[in-house]
Amino acid sequence: MIAVLRWGHRAVRDERITSHVCLVARAFGADKVIVSGENASESVESTKKIIENWGGKFEVEYTKNWRKVLDEWEGKIIHLTMYGEQLQDKIAQLRTKKDLLVVVGSQKVPPELYHRAAYNISVTTQPHSEVAALAVFLHEYFEGKELGKEFPNAKVKIKPNPRGKSFER
Amino acid sequence: MIAVLRWGHRAVRDERITSHVCLVARAFGADKVIVSGENASESVESTKKIIENWGGKFEVEYTKNWRKVLDEWEGKIIHLTMYGEQLQDKIAQLRTKKDLLVVVGSQKVPPELYHRAAYNISVTTQPHSEVAALAVFLHEYFEGKELGKEFPNAKVKIKPNPRGKSFER
């Protein structure tokens, strides 16, 4: 089980970024995303619609209590932060773990999170985007195999096209 | 020269996503980002501040005229779209090209863009995020070497830390 925790969502301000985090978690092979923080119903509902149309067994949840998520997690907790150890130095070791909770922050993350994580991991040591950090982390974790992942029970499925839009049905 | 064109920016609505696109372009090794569409001064200015503090030779520009950017580009144009050919099937071929303009859309992209691109490329065939698509595209193009890229003349530089925040000066 690979789950993603979107920590510290702020209503309105973070809506689109949180939606991107949820969709990236799904598209790049995670099993579940949990959003914590302020009301995130828009991001949660838009993700549910994507699952309904595009298939797969992905789950999306909202919680006010992120500490409970950490307390109950039985696998490793990985916190993605630009201050952490570098992805390229740790990924081989992380691939040997089978149950990961991957935490991505929004607003400033409390020291508690750095301490509760088994690994704090940086994807480049430059400021960029939690959406990008999550995508590249999962892409490396799954060694690129997630790019061809099948999503069962899809109502919509794209047929790759060099010059336009095609669907399989 | 690897440049990124953020196509079709919408003021206010896209501000944060466009900023993430700009910062991802920089962090993952592109040389330049060009934002086209509505007023993007907030994203452009926030990117300039990052360059000033975090170093590197990255450039950020705004244009109203995206067709001129395409007209004047002498290398290949790559359009990232969920409908395109799959990244994993094309990346080896794309790595042999040295001047790329990588286009990422925002709102719905016109058919013209699909036709002017030498390659339409999909990063997974699932809906997710232009921020993630750009990051994974550049990560694959540079074969992960961008993760350790140095940014000269930085005022701030992170020293990777397993459990907190450290800076080199």
Could you please describe the fold and organization of this structure?
2 copies of one chain form a homodimer. By secondary structure, chain A is α/β, with parallel strands linked by helices. Chain A has one domain: SPOUT methyltransferase, trefoil knot domain (Alpha/beta knot, 3-Layer(aba) Sandwich). Helices cover 36% and strands 25% of the residues of chain A. The first copy, chain A, contains 6 helices and 8 strands, in the order E-H-E-H-E-H-E-H-E-H-E-H-E-E. Chain A is globular, with a radius of gyration of 16 Å. The model of chain A has no long low-confidence stretch (mean pLDDT 97).
Question: TL;DR?
Answer:
Chain A is of the alpha/beta class and 169 residues long.
Q: Characterize the largest beta sheet of chain A: strand count, sense, and whether it forms a barrel.
A: 6 strands, parallel
Largest interface, Cβ cutoff 8 Å? A-B, 55 and 55 residues
Kindly report the average pLDDT value of chain A: 97
| Net shape of chain A | globular
Work out the strand percent of chain A. Answer: 25-35%
- In spatial order, strands of the major sheet of chain A run 3-2-1-5-4-6
- Radius of gyration of chain A, rounded? 16 Å
State the helical fraction of chain A: 25-40%
